[in-house]
Amino acid sequence: MEFTASQIAGILEGKVVGDPETAVHKLAKIEEGEEGSLTFLANPKYTQYIYSTEASITIVNNDFEPEHELKTTLIKVEDAYKSFSKLLEYYNQVKFNKSGIENPVFISDSAKYGDDLYLGAFSYLGNNVSLGNNVKVFPNVYIGDNVVIGNDVIIFPGAKIYSETLIGNGCVIHSGAIIGADGFGFAPNADGEYSKVPQTGNVILEDNVDIGAGTTIDRATLGSTILRRGVKLDNQIQIAHNVEIGEHTAIAAQTGIAGSTKIGKHCMIGGQVGIVGHIVIGDRVKIQAQSGVGRNVKDDEVLQGSPAINYGDYNKSYVHFKNLPGIVNRIQEIEKNIKRD
Q1: Residue-by-residue DSSP string for 263-306
Q2: Is 241 a catalytic residue?
Q3: What are the residue ranges spanned by the domains of the chain?
Q4: Measured distance CA(31)–CA(28) in Å, rounded
Q5: In the chain, what are the helix, strand and coil shares in percent, each to the nearest 5?
Q6: Which of 20, 137, 154, 204 is least enclosed, having the fewest CB within 10 Å?
Q7: Which residues lie across from 292 on neighbouring strands?
Q8: How far is Cα 157 from Cα 119, in angstroms, rounded to an integer?
Q9: pLDDT of residue 341
Q10: pLDDT tens-digit readout, 23-37
Q11: Residue 257: in which H helix or E strand, if any?
Q12: Burial of 63 by CB count in 10 Å (0-12 exposed, 13-18 middle, 19+ buried)?
């Protein structure tokens, strides 16, 4: 896709300084810009690069005035960073603006779908599936029986959506994600073997939920595993059966949340965090990476460590931990002196 400076300025409501017919077909960082690329300058620390960049077009703030000659055509806007982000969003919309049904695919006779569907090759729509308008289903996606998906949803290649799952509007599900697999439910027998506990519930994703690549969300044993509106999950996360995650909570990669735990709104959870089952985590909680949470957590707490404790207490304790070898040496010296005396 190729765009001219005048076209981009029209999208961003900006002003062109230079050749309005300058064309670009790719994006680049300002220090790595080359001919045919578009970049931006928002951070003053990078100003030096605008004089050497080979990028054909650079988006800058309205108050930018060059001190030296420029090779690049400028587009002046109120906020360069926000404008570049808007352009990235527009670029994605154009890139993913596919429609039509490729072959081969399987569509059950009882499946229904709205306008502007894209269904990639080798995808599967089961019985009583319902898809809204402007749904993009990329190749090799499996959508099981009785799944309901809202409008403006993107499902990337290889994702698997098990039966009975409910997905709201504006959701994005990345490659390899598995939504609705059985929860880890087994009951030990007297002979030491395990019997499977049937997992009869489902998964509900409310509006504007993002699911990262390779993430798994298990169906509930009874009832629903629920991700509330605006939840953002990174790659390779495990959400167990009957977990509930509150609105606009964000969770980084490789975190695991055990069954029936409830997490509040606007929480931020770092990578490789482990959270035990059947606890309640409040709103606006922050959990640092690699922490292990084994207790209920109140609103607004900040935790670190395993087992996780208050962030401030952890840092104070860590100072002592780092000094532990020296402390041990001093104790040993004191003990030697006592024995001599």
Answers
A1: E-TT-EE-TT-EE-SS-EE-TT-EE-TT-EE-S-B-TT-EEETT
A2: yes
A3: 3-95, 100-314
A4: 8
A5: 20, 30, 50
A6: 20
A7: 274
A8: 11
A9: 66
A10: 999 999 999 999 999
A11: strand 256-257
A12: exposed
* Cα 139 to Cα 155: distance, rounded to the nearest angstrom: 9
Q: Are the beta carbons of 100 and 82 closer than 8 angstroms? A: no
pLDDT in the model for residue 312: 80
Q: What is the dihedral of CA 62, 88, 149, 222, to 10 degrees?
A: -90
Residue 178: other Cβ atoms inside 10 A: 18
**The token pair that represents 217 in the structure block:** 């969300």
Residue where the block lists tokens 């049904």: 101
> pTM score, two decimals?
0.83
- CATH code for residues 100-314: 2.160.10.10
Strand arrangement, sheet containing 73-77: 15-17, 73-77, 57-61, 37-40, 26-27
**Is the per-residue pLDDT at 319 higher than 80?**
no
- Please check the confidence at residue 337 and state whether its pLDDT lies above 90: no
Q: How far apart are CA 9 and CA 22, in angstroms?
A: 12
- Given a cut of 90, whether residue 156 has pLDDT beyond it is yes
Give the chain's mean pLDDT. Answer: 94
Strands 250-251 and 232-233 come out as: parallel
- The single residue of 68, 241, 266, 278 carrying the catalytic annotation is 241
For 6, the token pair is 């005048």
* Cα gap 138→55, rounded to integer Å: 32
Q: Which CATH architecture has domain 3-95?
A: 3-Layer(aba) Sandwich (3.40)
**At CA 158, angle to CA 152 and CA 164, rounded to 5?**
65
